[in-house]
């Protein structure tokens, strides 16, 4: 196949994905939902971070999760054990979730108005960067066991993310990981990226992450009126 043909196919796939992503974004807007797309390499701690976050946040807000993995429903089961609804998507040979799959998952999950939906993407620092799912923010998770140079080796992912969660900081005493250098690399790729240092197992730094979610959620709700409130105003202007 010629290179021009391959570029054309890639553009068609991304163009189609963007149309589905816009439909998802519209639905999220109509429901006043905050949607976060968690992206990282395998094993950086996405599910561990999520289960702890869900346990700590579910008393205050309505939550739901879409889980993406090539195989197994292990992660969705870990999420459901917290009491939060979760839907697993298996991508088979696919290395990322796409907006069409997320749209289908939404039909089953039917998340509530004003809810926060977390999407745990397939563990992979490359493909998920290119696919818009309609989310408000991509959140990149990088664990300190992976090496501080990942942001410059996989720049697309860190460029696409609004927030970097530097996870497993409880392990720093046992590693040679230069936190400042890592943050510097991330900002070289994306000067606007916010960085929070956390440990999903010890809980250190998690309050800052929750604060970030609450702020993003409030921002999302500015000017939002639920469908029932809009209908009520039309009947009783
Ligand atoms: N020490 C330490 N270990 C952690 C932390 N967060 C996660 N882990 C461990 O890292 C391993 C992988 O965690 P997962 O939460 O399954 O990672 P994941 O990113 O969801 O993995 P995939 O879904 O396979 O991509 C598990 O053994 C966790 O216990 C942390 O903050 N500190
Ligand atoms: Mg996981």
> In this structure, how is the largest beta sheet organized?
7 strands, parallel
CATH fold descriptor = Rossmann fold
What count of structural domains? 1
Distance between the termini: 61 Å
**CATH architecture call:** 3-Layer(aba) Sandwich
What are the secondary-structure elements, in order, as H or E? HEHEHEHEEHHEHEHH
Q: Helix content range of the residues, please?
A: 40-55%
CATH class: Alpha Beta
Mean pLDDT: 94
What does this protein look like?
By secondary structure, the protein is an alpha/beta fold. The protein has a single domain, classed as Rossmann fold, CATH 3.40.50. 44% of the residues lie in helices and 17% in strands. The protein is built from nine helices and seven strands. Strands 3-2-4-1-5-6-7 form a seven-stranded parallel beta sheet, with helices on both faces. Helix 3 links the parallel strand 2 and strand 3. Helix 1 runs parallel beside helix 4.
What is the gist of this entry?
The protein is α/β, with parallel strands linked by helices and 237 residues long. Helix content is 44%, strand content 17%.
Please supply descriptive tags for the structure shown above.
237 residues, alpha/beta, Rossmann fold, 7 strands, 17% strand, binds guanosine-5'-triphosphate, binds magnesium ion
How would the blueprint of this fold be written?
Blueprint: H1 3-30, E1 34-40, H2 46-57, E2 63-69, H3 74-80, E3 86-90, H4 99-109, E4 116-120, E5 137-143, H5 150-153, H6 155-160, E6 163-167, H7 179-189, E7 194-197, H8 206-221, H9 227-235
Parallel strand pairs: 1-4, 1-5, 2-3, 2-4, 5-6, 6-7
Helix pairs in contact: 1-4
The protein binds guanosine-5'-triphosphate and magnesium ion.
Magnesium ion binds at residues 46-47, 75, 120.
């Amino acid at each position: 196949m010629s290179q021009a043909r391959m570029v054309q196919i890639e553009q068609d796939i991304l163009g189609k994905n963007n149309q589905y992503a816009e439909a998802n974004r519209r639905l999220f807007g109509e429901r006043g939902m905050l949607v976060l797309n968690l992206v990282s390499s395998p094993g950086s701690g996405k599910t561990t971070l999520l289960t702890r976050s869900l346990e700590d946040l579910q008393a205050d807000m309505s939550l739901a999760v879409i889980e993406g993995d090539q195989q197994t429903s292990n992660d969705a089961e870990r999420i459901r054990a917290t009491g939060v609804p979760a839907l697993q998507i298996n991508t088979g040979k696919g290395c990322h979730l796409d907006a069409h799959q997320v749209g289908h998952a939404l039909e089953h999950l039917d998340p509530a108005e004003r809810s926060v939906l977390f999407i745990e993407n397939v563990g992979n620092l490359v493909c998920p960067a290119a696919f818009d799912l309609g989310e408000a923010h991509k959140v990149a998770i990088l664990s300190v066991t992976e090496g501080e140079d990942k942001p410059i080796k996989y720049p697309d992912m860190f460029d696409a993310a609004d927030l970097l969660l530097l996870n497993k900081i409880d392990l720093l005493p046992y590693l040679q990981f230069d936190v400042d250098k890592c943050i510097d690399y991330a900002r070289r790729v994306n000067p606007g990226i916010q960085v929070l240092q956390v440990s999903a197992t010890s809980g250190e730094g998690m309050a800052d992450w929750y604060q970030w979610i609450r702020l993003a959620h409030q921002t999302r709700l500015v000017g939002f009126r639920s469908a029932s409130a809009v209908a009520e105003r039309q009947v009783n202007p």
